[in-house]
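Handout, section B. The chain below has 271 residues.
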Amino acid sequence: MLSTGALRAHLLAARLAGPVATSREESLRSYRLFAARDPRLLIGLDPEWAWNERDLIGLMADKCGVSGNPRHTTGRDVIDPERTLAALDAFAERLAAVAQRSGAVLLGTGHPHRLLGFYAALADALSAAGCAVLTPAHGRRVDITTRFGLRTYNLEYVRGVALVRGPDAESSGGEPGAHTHSPLPVRTALAAAAESGGPLPELVIGDHGWVCGAGQLGFEAMGPADTDDPALFVGEAEGVVSVVVPLDDGVRSDYYLPLTRYVLNRACLSQ
């Protein structure tokens, strides 16, 4: 089993935690837009409380370990590896709980280039434990507003993990899927599950809009988030999101493998 010390060292070496690639400028811009209730930063969340930029800086300092000084405006953001480790333990605890009752799960990502392998390994382990890994709305069209205008995508599942692809993308090709923060894919999947009368997920695992969109609809949801993703941490603070793991969500995909092994071992789901 990967020790806590070894994982801490990996988090820092891979820059999943410690000084990360996300800049302070990017994070502060996200906090300003979130405080202004910009849908691009709310990503499906409808906050109950009023959050201004200073509130968000304080929250992110508490949850991630970024600087709590509003006058700190440049340089790289920093994630405290101890906070990442604590959140991974909580993440593993929720995995174990749903596995023990063989609950249905839904997994989806807006970061397929980086995180597909992480989620797919979780899907495999949960399926082996007797959980139903749901795939509702496979092939369904999803229209998402992007900076280039309204774009049409198809909702697909790869190794049990939902993602969206452009209509011209080859399903069997090397393109793993589109990057999106939109909550529309998870809303589409959950609506299809309800319409079919099939099982609804007891737990949704993902990132960005997958977590916020599901949590806002009352489903238990959890996943990773970077320092410029305040919506997930606000959702956690307000009790809408179950667990958020602070880490850089844009590093090489193989750098997440030790995290996978760690949480599966902690959840007693290693195969």
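Note. Strands lie at 18-23, 76-79, 105-108, 141-146, 149-158, 161-165, 203-206, 221-225, 243-246. Compare this with the example in section A.
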